[in-house]
């Protein structure tokens, strides 16, 4: 299916209006890539309009796709992003990809739709960022690294070459993964950890070196 971002500027609906969303909104203003149309958040009980932007609750059922509109789930929590994506039942092609103008993404890297690359982040050659994932401020994704869907790589993380993060992984701020490390799905790596061995699914690990707790 053709990516909706190709061609003219699209209207954008952002889901979520917390701190993470405000950063996304700031990036949108800096890039002029999208025209912000609506913000959906469950803190709104009814629809309101302010400065030309419509604010409304998140729909509880499938959303009909529209050719002129892209969507972006601007929520930092992996599981909540995943839940909302399942709730809306939109195609991956309906979602925007947002890259800060000060991020560096190699031409041979792939960033899939729904994902966010923050300021000063680096995504190196032959790396793949899955759908609805976050590479946060000043994080480094080195060559040949594979990041699954609904992953959050927090600020100042370094993923050295050929790492593999499965879906729903969270890597805490300032952590370092040495080359050839794999992290299983739904696993959390605590902030400031140094990961020198692969970590299985559904666990929490932290420390230097990182150990399962």
Short account of what is shown:
By secondary structure, the chain is mainly β. It contains two helices and 24 strands.
Layout of helices and strands:
Elements: E1 10-15, H1 19-31, E2 34-40, E3 48-50, E4 53-56, E5 69-73, H2 78-88, E6 98-99, E7 104-105, E8 110-111, E9 116-117, E10 122-123, E11 128-129, E12 134-135, E13 140-141, E14 146-147, E15 152-153, E16 158-159, E17 164-165, E18 170-171, E19 176-177, E20 182-183, E21 188-189, E22 194-195, E23 204-206, E24 211-212
Parallel strand pairs: 1-2, 1-5, 2-4, 6-9, 7-10, 8-11, 9-12, 10-13, 11-14, 12-15, 13-16, 14-17, 15-18, 16-19, 17-20, 18-21, 19-22, 21-23
Antiparallel strand pairs: 3-4, 23-24
Key features of this structure:
single chain; 213 residues; mainly beta; Rossmann fold; UDP N-Acetylglucosamine Acyltransferase, domain 1; 2 domains; eight-stranded mixed beta sheet; six-stranded parallel beta sheet; 2 helices; 11% helix; 30% strand; repeat; PglD_N; transferase
């Amino acid at each position: 299916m053709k990516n909706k971002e190709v061609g003219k500027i699209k209207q954008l609906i952002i889901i979520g209006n917390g701190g993470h969303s405000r950063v996304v909104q700031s990036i949108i203003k800096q890039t002029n890539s999208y025209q912000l149309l609506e913000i959906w958040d469950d803190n709104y009980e009814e629809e309101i309009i302010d400065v030309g932007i419509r604010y409304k609750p998140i729909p509880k059922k499938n959303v009909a796709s529209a050719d002129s509109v892209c969507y972006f789930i601007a929520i930092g929590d992996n599981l909540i992003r995943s839940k909302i994506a399942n709730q809306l039942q939109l195609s991956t092609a309906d979602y925007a990809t947002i890259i800060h103008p000060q991020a560096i993404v190699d031409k041979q890297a792939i960033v899939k739709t729904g994902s966010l690359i923050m300021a000063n982040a680096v995504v190196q050659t032959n790396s793949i960022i899955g759908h609805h994932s976050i590479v946060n401020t000043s994080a480094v994704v080195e060559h040949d690294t594979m990041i699954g869907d609904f992953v959050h790589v927090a600020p100042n993380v370094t993923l050295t070459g050929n790492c593999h993060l499965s879906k729903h992984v969270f890597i805490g701020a300032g952590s370092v993964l040495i080359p050839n490390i794999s992290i299983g799905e739904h696993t959390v790596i605590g902030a400031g950890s140094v990961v020198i061995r692969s970590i299985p699914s559904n666990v929490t690990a932290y420390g230097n070196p990182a150990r399962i707790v």
